[in-house]
Amino acid sequence: MSETVDLALGILDHQLVDSEDFRCGKVDDLELEGLQDGSPRVETILVGAPAWRGRGIMGRLAAALVRGRMVRVPWSEVSEVDSAVRLRKPSQELSLRRADQSARPLVEWIPGARSEG
Amino acid sequence: MKRIFEVALGILAAIGGFVDIGDIVFNVAAGALFGYQLLWVVVIGVGAIITYSEMCGRVAVVSGRAAMDVVRERLGFGAGLVALIAGQLVNLMTLAAEIGGIALALQLLSGLPYRVLLVLGVLVLGVVIWVLPFEWIERVFGYVGLTMLVFAVAAIKLRPGWSDVGAGFVPGVPSSNLAVYAFFAVGLIGAATVPYEVYFYSSGAVEERWTPKDLGINKANAIIGYSLGGFLSFALMIMAGALFFPKGISPEALGTVALGAEVPLGQIGLLLALVGVLFAVGGAAIDSVFSGAYNMAQFFGWEWGKYRKPVDAPRFTIAWLVMLVLGFVIVVTGVDPIQVTEFSVIFSVVALPLTYIPILLVANDRAYMGRYANGKVANVFGIAYLVVILVVAVAAIPLMIVTNMGQG
Fold first, then answer.
1. C-alpha distances in angstroms, B221 versus B132, B163, B198?
2. According to CATH, what is the number of the domain B2-402?
3. Distance CA B38, CA B400 (A)
């Protein structure tokens, strides 16, 4: 991780990857704290459709059309930032990738769904 | 030695994978209408896809992030979503056109009804995607698609005036019919740069787990593979220029295109041409199915990849299945696949800057790319093509309207 990271270009909208190397959402929005006391820091990563509300007109529109829960990932769970934001734990422990869990039964029944392509 | 072999195999697949229904339709129509005069535009189009996919492949290799990841990172959620929607509409139209092309080629081979073959074609595509590993899909279709080279043999056998062919590589403007000429120029550039190729190519670099060691392969695939793929485009245009142009035939059916190989080479030429078209178009259909799923997953952050078990990337798996079904639904309504092809190519030109610009920006970003950022050569081409892409994007719709889709 380089010394300075541009939040808008280097973190926001980047891929989240869990400790097992699964992709588990995007950095949909960020919560900052300490803006008043002059030492701002990223406190929380917001993941999921409701987090798009803070992302302009298209974001509000998309959030209104898509159902989904928002997951808050504390910045302390971040292990590393490269081209992705890497997390310390598996998705399940952070309540991420729940939509993949609920979509699983839809493909599970197809022969070969458990073998690598 | 093994390395050289691998590179050669990749290049072969790139050649076969270059041509799709858009290239077939636009190159043959351009040759039939303008002879060899538009050959130079194909050179520009091939240069565009080389520049674009080399950058996109390099970004994917260095960062592990494919095209739509980069688009969202750079454009943000709102503008990124616009790029996603535009990209997906074009992908879907392209897919519908390719599926139609598969059924048309099968119909010419078997004589069975078109709609039956649409169903059959889609089922076979679904099974192939489900069962075959990524590398196999890419290669099988790429290699068999190489039988399209029969059009090169046909072009030579038709004894084109080689000095006229040579003159076609010199940029020029005709004295009449300028708008239609410009429309086909835009279409030829669009057909060479259909966006699914880049989505697929960059995601494929991640699928095959390329590392910076493979940057040489990336460059070779893009430059040599696509140049030789462009050679197939030349062959199609020269064939049409030699056969259809003097007679004033404008080929509106795929069967007429295949005639281009049958006239000089007989039954065997026809057979090879149809098999080549079938596999080239089939491969393109699979690439565009995957591109649709890659784009969704990369924009929304889902787990993706053919290298994953389907149960480990369920939303990605559902996305490609849905994509395939939607493509089928569009063509089964009975729309003319050739017309869908023309629309998909023209709209892809309009949407192209939305993905090209973010990728050019990231490929230049040293914070992101480190020492693999664009060098001088990549930037000269990258920026020159930015201008070309912006010009054709702005000109596409007005030309489409003025010329009534090239009808004049």
1. 22, 31, 13
2. 1.20.1740.10
3. 17
Strands A15-17, A84-87: pairing kind: parallel
**Mean per-residue pLDDT of chain B:** 93
Q: How far is it, in rounded angstroms, from Cα A30 to Cα A44? A: 6
Cβ within 8 Å, pair B78-A55: yes
The Cα–Cα gap between B257 and B105 comes to 11
Contacts of B59 in chain A (CB under 8 A): none
Question: A29 φ, ψ to 5°?
Answer: -160, 170
Task: Read off the pLDDT of residues A7-59 as tens digits, 9 standing for 90 and up.
Answer: 888 899 999 999 999 999 999 999 999 888 888 899 999 999 999 999 999 99
Distance from CA of A9 to the nearest CA of B (A): 7
By Cβ distance, the residue of A16, A57, A104 closest to B301 is: A16
Instruction: Name the residue facing B77 among A14, A24, A52 (closest C-beta).
Output: A52
Q: What is the pLDDT of residues A69-82, one digit of tens each?
A: 999 999 999 999 99
**d(C-alpha B272, C-alpha B281), whole Å:** 14
Q: Spelled out in words, what is the top-level CATH class assigned to the domain A7-108?
A: mainly beta
Complex ipTM more than 0.85, yes or no: yes
